[in-house]
Amino acid sequence: MRTSNTFHLVSLGCPKNRVDSERILSTMAQAGFLHIDDPGQAGVIVINTCAFIESAVEESIDTILDHREDNREAFLVVAGCLPSRYGNSLEEPLPEVDLFLRPDQIDRLPAILAADAADGYSLGGETSAERRRILTTPGYAYLKIAEGCSRHCSYCTIPSIRGALHSSEVSELEGEARWLASMGVRELVLVAQDLTSYGLDRKERNGLPALLDRLTTIDGIRWIRLMYLHPNGIPKGLAAAINESPKILPYLDIPFQHVSPAVLRGMGRPWKGDATRKLVDGLRAAIPGLVLRTTFMVGFPGEGDEEYGELLEFVESYQIDRVGVFTYSPEEGTPALDLGDPVPQDVKEARAEEIHSVHARFLSNRNRERIGGVEPAIVEGVSAESDLLLQGRMWDQAPEVDGVLYVTAGRADAGEIYDVRITGSHGPDLFCELP
What we know:
By secondary structure, this protein is an alpha/beta fold.
């Protein structure tokens, strides 16, 4: 019988999962559970999983099995995308798991544990359905403004995992953002599976700019960063909102996936009239100093040498500021599965490496040109590389994906924003001193 009220949490996957993980932490803490770092000593282990692509599913399953092997007595909870994607079909192949929990069931977790444990736990407090979290990052927080996606990209599992688009209410998001600001958050990173479509499920065609207008009024919030914008239908008022508010960073994360019309058509994404180049040209003209981040997928069925050449030429000529690249993986339950997987894996990996190398050279040159300049940055705390350095991010570095900033001289409070002098660079990373 379990007698400990301790729990350990493992968070896998994207920032949207991070928000759910913080909700798990908050919900469990409010119910009287104590979080500990050692899974081997925990009475409950919660693994918040990712299942977006096959490799993520494999990582999630490996993590589940490893934690069960390390602690055979703990009550093992598997939350997140894995149970959302596969449902009850997981129970037979994963008998090691005591409970599968969908994201919409997070607030019920303590009650479920109490019902299962009977007299095994003494729960303090009540489970709250409010969108409150224990923050795991100094100075910044992810604000998830919508769940699910109503697009129909042929390779994507998100609609089957998270359902159709469901936008959160503006008043609810504003309230959460004000609470985050009161907790010391200076940077809000807005995330969703499809940020572009925020509000469309409620027939609001300019929902994202309207939300931004409310968020910019919050005292304490200095930066607002926009992540995961679908390239089709970006609101017309977005450029004006960015230009008019110093709080909204001129940084947009728009996953293009590809530029070849033939490949994009197969993906079920915007492809007519050289859509990607027109979008980039238009945004750069409308937003002075814009920094763009994107991701590309190589090896999708139909990507021959010619189609890949189009992508490579775009990367070389358009010099997108931040680029991620990954290889196509056929996924069960997606229309693209029927197209097969004709591009050999070694060809996919070679193409991904070439794209990465081309962009890395551009980024290294760009970072060297910034040396000597003074720009705003957020300091996050002591560096993971050395306790002699502080670590943070420049204004154009998103958390976890865009490199880091190392502070080599000066003092700063974790979570605050400062003007720093850039003194050096190494690949995607920068070095600075506080004036």
